[in-house]
Each structure stands twice: as structure tokens, then as C-alpha cells.
Write a structure and sequence with these properties.
The chain has 134 residues and is an all-alpha fold. The chain has one domain. It is 86% helix and 0% strand.
Length: 134
């Protein structure tokens, strides 16, 4: 009694299994990308409004600080210049420090779909093991 399947049937089944395999992985990738994009879409408008409000407040606060320093240097005819230079220097130092911290944080985060890559790596190991066994 011969229970082996014809080669055509085996190839057809293998083709269907491979299609299902790829479809599953693509659905996983799409789901992960959609999840990340929906989070970005929800937060970007909020961040834009927050940035505009913070910028407005920051400009008013900056002027108040420059005016305070101007009052401290008042007898000097260049008091506005010195006040502006002091505030600008503080902003440059703060901007450099915060920029460096932000860059360090951003460079440690991966944009790649990690879960999908992990599953694909596991699949690669499984396929290698299966082909060795055959």
C-alpha cells in the first residue's frame, strides 16, 4: 500500500502553506505599523498646539527676563545689549544641553518593527532546522 502523495500535490500544498505563512507575516507587519501610525496621528496635532502655546509663552518670558536685566544695567547705555547677550548665551547653553540629551534618547530608539523582525528570525531558525531534518 502506497501512502505517499504525488509530487504535484506536495508542491501545491507547500505553495499554499507558504502563501499562508507570508500572509500571516504581512498582516503582523501591517498591524504593527498601523498601531504606531495611529499613535502618531493622535499626538501630532496636540503637540503642534502645545508647541505654539509654549513658544508664545517663552517669548513673553524672554522679554520679561531681558527687561529685568536691562533694569539692572540701567545706567549703562548698552544695557539692552548686555541683557540680550546674557539671555541669548543662557539659551544657547540650554539648547546645546537639551539637544544633546534629546539626540542621545532618540538614537537609542529603533523605528524598525521589532515584533515582526523577531517572529521572522524565529521563522528563519525553524526553516533552517526543518531543511536540515529533511
Amino acid at each position: 500500500m502506497n501512502t505517499e502523495k504525488p509530487i504535484g500535490t506536495l508542491l501545491s500544498e507547500t505553495k499554499e502553506e507558504f502563501k499562508e505563512f507570508l500572509d500571516t507575516r504581512l498582516q503582523l507587519l501591517k498591524a504593527e505599523i498601523n498601531e504606531k501610525m495611529s499613535r502618531w496621528k493622535a499626538s501630532i496635532p496636540l503637540l503642534a498646539v502645545a508647541a505654539a502655546l509654549l513658544l508664545s509663552g517663552w517669548m513673553v518670558l524672554t522679554f520679561a527676563f531681558v527687561a529685568l536685566l536691562h533694569a539692572l544695567f540701567l545706567p549703562n547705555p548698552y544695557s539692552w545689549l548686555w541683557a540680550g547677550l546674557i539671555v541669548a548665551g543662557m539659551y544657547f547653553i540650554g539648547g546645546i544641553v537639551l539637544g544633546w540629551m534629546g539626540y542621545s534618547e532618540l538614537s537609542s530608539v529603533s523605528v524598525a518593527p521589532e515584533r515582526t523582525l523577531k517572529v521572522l528570525k524565529q521563522d528563519q531558525v525553524w526553516i533552517q532546522n526543518e531543511t536540515r531534518a529533511a
